[in-house]
Amino acid sequence: MATGKIIKALSGFYYVFHEGAVYQCRGRGLFRKKKITPLVGDLVEFQAETMKEGYILSIQDRKNEFVRPPIANVDQALIVTSATNPDFNPLLLDRFLVLIEAKRLEPVIVISKMDHIDKSVAVKMEDYRKIYEEIGYEVILASVYEKNTLDQIKSQLANRTTVIAGQSGVGKSSLLNSIDPRLNIDTDEISKSLGRGKHTTRHVELYEMAGGLVADTPGFSSLEFGDLQLEELSECFPEFVQVQDQCKFRGCLHFKEPKCAVKQGVDNETISKLRYEHYMHFVQEIQNRKPRY
């Protein structure tokens, strides 16, 4: 018996990486009876007579798991957004950040296409970088993926399992190809990696890259908050968490309550007004969400 990590799941087979080799395995029949589905990213105990004939015997406890994409034990999300074409969208970035924070992942923000913008837009991007770095996020401003930028991103990938998140056309495929040309992802097939349109292939695969493992999916095919509760939303804003113990009321939601430390932070400009406006936008969205039965 050996321990390995599932790096691909396809057509009932699980491909388990162990000591530099990949073993094709099936799950035990017991998994089906107990309705347990092994996921890419799972650490498993397996037994294999040959490279093509193995069985997964047990799955170790997961630290997290996702439905879309179906993957477990992720350490961080690399959010790729662009300065232009499509234009930088801070509301969309904050939406990604909330989803990632809700899963207790470490986010890294990459703003691409910095070489395609004029000075006035570049100044705005620097302002945004300051906002997010003050919260504590790692922010990388990327022109064409030159060596310094790639080295910075590679250092973030080392020894971690990473999912890539970001809207269509921001340069996710170009980034992955620049880090590891062996991938040769078609940059025109954005819809394929999103699992949309005419391409129906939908499987997650982990690739060895820069000393870590990277999922070949952009990470989140749904940007709805789903089951996120209103009371949980402020926990996804680290700068709110830092001060919310100073709010007058325990369980303060930071929008109607008096003597709210978060609102005071916005007034004092120690908390970004833009981020607070986005928080309020998400509050409304969750309040207006139709109940599920």
UniProtKB/TrEMBL annotation:
Keyword Acetylation part of the UniProt annotation: no
Entry binding sites for Zn(2+): C247, C252, H254, C260
Cofactor binding note from Swiss-Prot or TrEMBL: Binds 1 zinc ion per subunit.
Ranges of residues in domain CP-type G: 63-223
Enzyme Commission number(s) from the entry: 3.6.1.-
SUPFAM superfamilies: Nucleic acid-binding proteins (SSF50249), P-loop containing nucleoside triphosphate hydrolases (SSF52540)
Binding site for GTP: S112, K113, M114, D115, G166, Q167, S168, G169, V170, G171, K172, S173, S174
Tree of life domain: Bacteria
InterPro entries the UniProt entry points to: G_CP_dom (IPR030378), NA-bd_OB-fold (IPR012340), P-loop_NTPase (IPR027417), Ribosome_biogen_GTPase_RsgA (IPR004881), RsgA_GTPase_dom (IPR010914), RsgA_N (IPR031944)
Localisation per UniProt entry: Cytoplasm
Keywords from the named record: Cytoplasm, GTP-binding, Hydrolase, Metal-binding, Nucleotide-binding, Ribosome biogenesis, RNA-binding, rRNA-binding, Zinc
Coiled-coil parts of chain: none
Record flagged with keyword Cytoplasm: yes
Segments forming domain EngC GTPase: 72-221
Similarity field: Belongs to the TRAFAC class YlqF/YawG GTPase family. RsgA subfamily.
Annotated function: One of several proteins that assist in the late maturation steps of the functional core of the 30S ribosomal subunit. Helps release RbfA from mature subunits. May play a role in the assembly of ribosomal proteins into the subunit. Circularly permuted GTPase that catalyzes slow GTP hydrolysis, GTPase activity is stimulated by the 30S ribosomal subunit.
Xref: PANTHER family: SMALL RIBOSOMAL SUBUNIT BIOGENESIS GTPASE RSGA, SMALL RIBOSOMAL SUBUNIT BIOGENESIS GTPASE RSGA 1, MITOCHONDRIAL-RELATED
Protein name: Small ribosomal subunit biogenesis GTPase RsgA
